[in-house]
Amino acid sequence: MTLIGVPRETAAGERRVALVPKVVERLRAAGLGVVVEAGAGAGALIPDDAYARAGAAIGDPWAADVVVKVNPPTPEETGLLGPASTVIGFLAPLTRPEVAERLRLAGATGFAMESVPRISRAQSMDALSSQANVAGYRAVLLAADCSTRFFPMLTTAAGTVKPATVLVLGVGVAGLQALATAKRLGARTTGFDVRPEVAEQVRSLGAQWLDLGVSASGEGGYARALSEEEQAEQQRRLTDAISGFDVVITTALVPGRPAPTLVTAEAVRRMRPGSVVVDLAGETGGNCELTRPGERVVRHDVTVAAPLDLPATLPEHASELYARNVQALLELMLKDGEFAPDLSDEILAACCVTHHSDQLTEAR
Hints:
The chain is of the alpha/beta class. It has 2 domains: 155 residues, NAD(P)-binding Rossmann-like Domain (Rossmann fold); 179 residues, Rossmann fold (3-Layer(aba) Sandwich), CATH 3.40.50. Helix content is 33%, strand content 17%. Helix 5 runs parallel beside helix 6. Pfam families: AlaDh_PNT_C, AlaDh_PNT_N. One of its GO terms (molecular function) is proton-translocating NAD(P)+ transhydrogenase activity.
């Protein structure tokens, strides 16, 4: 029987866990064994006895055949892996290649959840999207907490308060969730992206589309590179537009590269006092020139917040969603009830960052 190990996450501030009891039950029904480290679910308020009732053993997860994590294993954790073991989790292959190298030298196989291709067949395994949904939702709540103004329009005996205006820059999964959440709170919402083809998605959420008059549409549905003149004009128009909003939420990320600057220091200076910028790209430098990753600062009476791990602040649902992604990937790796990843499968080939045979081949 293949044994799945679930260790306790050790990254600072991390409260998620890679598997929840409901998913443990499903994996057990599929013929897999599960061992959970004591206290692994404590951050998500899941007690050890809940895992035990689901059929998991409480013990050492590092000797398991497959170790499932949220964050990349530390050097110390990599040293605990058994021979020819497998690790599944966010392994940061583009930003922290040393993680994959440590796994390779340890003779382990690594599957990176962030490398699951975004194709129809892999939607249930798309952990980037599931966690981006959490981040987009939480970003709006953070903005409302930092704001000096109401989000909804309020009509009172003392008069009417206008609704807050929210601009979301980058309307991928996190951006669309941010627009939807801000709308639910009663704000007037607007979305912008360099891909004009997503305008209908923005409008479908009851938001307006910010048209800067500079299009990056290219062939095959991909954005083309803007010329220097077009970039400068787009930035000028965006800076002008930002000053009219109470809240700006930025979500623009480029895999393996520094985040693009969307909100300049001048744009922040021109915003109304009490306004808020929530930058979800802080881990790669941020979309705002005044961002300090992991901090909340006030500049020109405008709050600029750049949280680094928003999904971890909603550990219960974030863990549930992530565990379902892991379950779907594990099920793809099973053949006749046995753990046998087929690396000719395009999904597994895309997310496999190292394979234990690499080390064996080198040793020969």
